[in-house]
Amino acid sequence: MNNIPVSSEAKEIYKKALKYVTRIQLELRNKDTFAVAELFEIAALMAQSIRQSEQLSSYAIYYFDVQDIARSHVVNVAIFSIALSMGIGYGDDELTEVGAAGLLHDVGIGKIPADLFHGKIESLNRAEQKIVEMHSEFGYRAILESDHNLENLAICTLQHHERIDGTGYPNRLHDKQIDPCAKILAIIDTYEALIHPRDYRDTLVPPLGLKEIITQKGTSFSPELVRHLIEHISIYPVGCFVLLNSGETAKVIKTNRGNPVRPVVRILYDSKGYPAKQQ
Questions:
Q1: Sheet containing 241-243: which strands, arranged edge to edge?
Q2: What is the DSSP secondary structure assignment for residue 203, as one 8-state letter?
Q3: Of 83, 117, 217, 237, which has the maximum CB count within 10 A?
Q4: CA distances for 10 relative to 6, 84, 104, angstroms
Q5: Cis-peptide, bond into residue 275, ω within 30° of zero
Q6: 173 and 159 in contact (C-beta within 8 Å)?
Q7: pTM for this model (two decimals)
Q8: Which phi-psi region, left, alpha or beta, contains residue 249 (left: φ > 0; alpha: ψ -120 to 50)?
Q9: Is 118 helix (H, G, I), strand (E, B) or coil?
Q10: SS3 assignment for 90-117
Q11: Is 19 exposed, middle or buried (0-12, 13-18, 19+ CB in 10 A)?
């Protein structure tokens, strides 16, 4: 993954976040608390980086940890949640809190057997599914036991699998009962999982992942959040290759916030496969 076309600074921030997530999940596997130190520092670094450029968001689209997809998933969710919240209009302190919530939202998996969490939940028996679903409650308790001042983050963690139509877990909450931060984590948690591989399926490219989200608009996720996702999360990330309707092959060099389905591209090959003449 070292050849991902983003800055070394973005990679370092990502690496720092990944180390933190790895450490706290291992700590929770061995005891009931984890070290909160560094949490807000890392979240603030992420927010600052995303405000300055799209580098970190692009890295989150490309990167997944094949050794433990659950940990890179957490970092990616934190990054995308900040990007979405920035598009909504959150201020710096709010962005840091959303990022921190993203970094903690799956901390409870430290209490779940790894072989259960990596599989497709529908393939598990009901008893196994219940164990997996308890990760949000385990996380809630662990956050409060680690630092009782983090109640807001604990609530986000507890509710990030709730759905606005009441079909989520653990408490089958409906729309207005769900914390706004938890709603952001919920839609990003789903989107991130769709665009990276799992043991039971291949990656969906971001446009197809987004299409899956749109089908759940108004049921699992609010139409407003779906709209913000479309407008503010890079569907075609910088550095990816696209096949144009003309048959030409191009590379995305800049996203288009006003029209995310039409990024700025550089033509590399013409419709016959010959290198294009650069202007």
A1: 241-243, 249-254, 264-269
A2: P
A3: 83
A4: 7, 18, 20
A5: no
A6: yes
A7: 0.84
A8: beta
A9: coil
A10: CCHHHHHHHHHHHHHCCHHHHHCCHHHH
A11: middle
Residue given tokens 């061995």 in the structure block: 30
Closest among 163, 180, 160 to 219, alpha carbons compared? 163
Q: In this structure, are residues 88 and 94 in contact, taking their beta carbons and an 8 Å threshold?
A: no
Q: Can you tell me the distance from the alpha carbon of 100 to that of 179, in angstroms, rounded to the nearest whole number? A: 15
Does an H or E element contain 164, and which? none
Supply 259's token pair.
């029209």
Two structure tokens written together for 225: 């959040």
Closest CA to 183 of 205, 161, 153: 161
Separation between Cα atoms, residue 105 and residue 99, nearest integer Å: 10
